[in-house]
Amino acid sequence: MSDFILEVQNVKKKYATHQALSGVSLQVPRKQIFGLLGPNGAGKSTLIRIITQIISKDEGEILFNGKALTLKDAEKIGYLPEERGLYKKMKVGEQLVYLAQLRGLSKKDAMSKLKVWFEKFNIIEWWGKNVEDLSKGMQQKVQFIATVLHEPELLILDEPFSGFDPVNAQIITEEILELQRKGTTIIFSTHRMETVEELCEHIALINKSQKILDGGKNEIKEKYRANVYQVRYKGELDTLTSAFPSDFNFLETEKENNILTSYIQIPKDFQTNHFVKLLLDNVQLVSFQEQLPSINDIFISLVTGATIYKNQPTIQLEN
Questions:
Q1: Per-residue model confidence as pLDDT tens digits over 231-255
Q2: N or C: where does the chain have the smaller number of CB atoms within 10 Å of the terminal CB?
Q3: What strands lie across the sheet with 185-189, from one edge to the other?
Q4: Cα end-to-end distance, the chain, whole Å
């Protein structure tokens, strides 16, 4: 069996004069959470709709479990779209049973599984309510249950936390992680980069119809590591700059009260211990922190050209 549950190979899609996807290829590792990222209009939604067979591709190939994707595979895929699609006038329980049967479950199996989910979410009293009588957050929970009830091998979540308060967002996060532990592969599309940091192991970034980044999250962060350090200190900038060789790059210095903050890029082969010693020998060191890029920093940098190091949070190490 392939290590990848889903393989997208040179997929292209054009709408009239708009090229939505220009030869996108990616591989989704089995049993992991894969972040599909990109700005609005990049082509993410088009790719998801092709994978879920809502629309057809113009060119390329999509493999599911190592074989060409077919309509039958829809029973093994769950899709939670950003725009929810529940029937407003239909009762919650009746609707979920109906949707489960569309996914190949018998009514008996659907009822049994729904009982577990309704007890888990403590929503038993919702069974006989019309969907239109539920709040947006409550409807989101119902839609989530409908998406995962048939226990799909591949689960595609498009902005799954939209409309949730922090408490319910955490509940859904825990359920997503539990599904992964049980073997479900999850494609996670969102603009919430903090959630990507927390959940995703692999990411792909699509921009202007093309994939511009792909790989393991930690490997990508290491790749964009720039050896930039934020140094907060008391002393004189001239004293500090004169202490370092010319290949040290002082990117920017700010001053607040009597504390200076300098962003310094050091050569990759220069030992950190020697760097700290030079600092201690020349200024009164307040804090010292490498500016490791976040996924949000990398996203913004690649899409807009912004400088990565300035997007980093300030972390106080010592007083």
A1: 999 999 898 899 888 899 998 899 9
A2: C
A3: 77-80, 154-158, 185-189, 33-37, 202-207, 210-216
A4: 54
